[in-house]
Amino acid sequence: MATSIVMPKLGMTMTEGTVEEWLKQPGDTVKEGEGIVTISSDKLTSEVEAPADGVLLKIIKDVTEEATVGEPIGIVGQDGEEVGEAVSNVEETKTEQEPEVHQETIQQSELNQKMDGPQRKKRISPAARKKAKALAIDISNITGTGPKGRITRRDIEQAAKQQAAATIMEEQTVEKQTAQEKATHVTGLSSMRKSIATNMQQSLANTAQLTLHRKADITDLLVFQNKMRAEAAENGLDIKLTLTVFLARAVTLSLQQHPEVNTHLIDEQLHQYDVVHLGIATSLENGLVVPVVKHAERLPLGSLAEQIKLVTESAREGKNVELNGATFTISNLGAQGVEYFTPILNPPESGILGVGTFIKEFALGENEAVKQKISLPLSLTFDHRVLDGAPAAAFLNTIAHYLANPYLLLL
């Protein structure tokens, strides 16, 4: 009688998997417990074993196709069995078994008795049984991930790793307890810190981050900044022309020249934007937020300064401010004396610019005369899934060019 090969559940959060390779083709003879197909989830790859002796009658899900957990991906049956009849048998078996799943909702005490009773028999492939014996693994506490809960060789290998890890943890218990006893103050994570921790961990886990570093000559920019401040004061304008304002303008102009950086990767699709919504990383007493300046590409230098001041001050005062929708972010740690660092992406953004503190340097000028210049360290983190190194470097060089030629920022 035909038996379906179903997509197994490789992890607690797995809901679907992808067929990577069929190890057998329709018509090939298979034996129960023999590897028949390789599947993968977003994190794991596993070999699915044949649920019964016979032949592979039909491949339902071909290579690269996805299936939900428990969904049939192929059919094993007897040689000569009609595929149509086999499919009907599988569907009938599935229908007959569905009510049994609901009937297995029993009391926890009854479940424990069933689990502990000698009558319970574990389904395990021959290869897995041999592996368990070699590694001295007790299969009674292993939950199989194969068809119908069958224990696979991968399950045994995973159990061996967990057993080894448990031994190491046990040996380190005394040392860890001693370290914990030395703590003078223990507190739980605030909701903001939990959110930051989750976002940063997911960012590093789910993106391919790479950071490029370079310096920008801002000698003329600082002179330009002082001149602009003086003119603003003479005209009675209350404009806060900080270095972040000039950086924001340089980044905005550079993003318009390099739109591939102003891109989000969402559901395996690239979303490129003409608008520039700038996130300004802002430090708070107990955490960090990233308020957003919307449509920075529409704002001249003075208006950009006003908006940056508005959103950052509102964030620090706990007022309602837009914290979502940025297409690119700037993080400035110059005030903390940091030179270079590796800022972490704020997904789904593909880039974030880290800014360090001023560095006074000596350089050769015209006629090889020694002159002093002021450099600004820049650190660009980008998502290598979206960008390669060359276009990312070109974008960073464009930012440096604008900073070295500040009058271009007025365009």
Automatic annotation (TrEMBL):
Pfam families: 2-oxoacid_dh (PF00198), Biotin_lipoyl (PF00364), E3_binding (PF02817). One of its GO terms (molecular function) is acetyltransferase activity. It comes from the Bacteria. Gene3D superfamilies: 2.40.50.100, Chloramphenicol acetyltransferase-like domain, E3-binding domain. Residues 123-160 form the Peripheral subunit-binding (PSBD) domain. Residues 2-77 form the Lipoyl-binding domain. InterPro entries: 2-oxoacid_DH_actylTfrase, 2-oxoacid_DH_E2_comp, Biotin_lipoyl, CAT-like_dom_sf, E3-bd_dom_sf, PSBD, Single_hybrid_motif. GO terms for cellular component: cytoplasm. Keywords: Acyltransferase, Lipoyl, Transferase. Its cofactor is (R)-lipoate. PANTHER family: DIHYDROLIPOAMIDE ACETYLTRANSFERASE COMPONENT OF PYRUVATE DEHYDROGENASE COMPLEX, LIPOAMIDE ACYLTRANSFERASE COMPONENT OF BRANCHED-CHAIN ALPHA-KETO ACID DEHYDROGENASE COMPLEX, MITOCHONDRIAL. This is Dihydrolipoamide acetyltransferase component of pyruvate dehydrogenase complex.
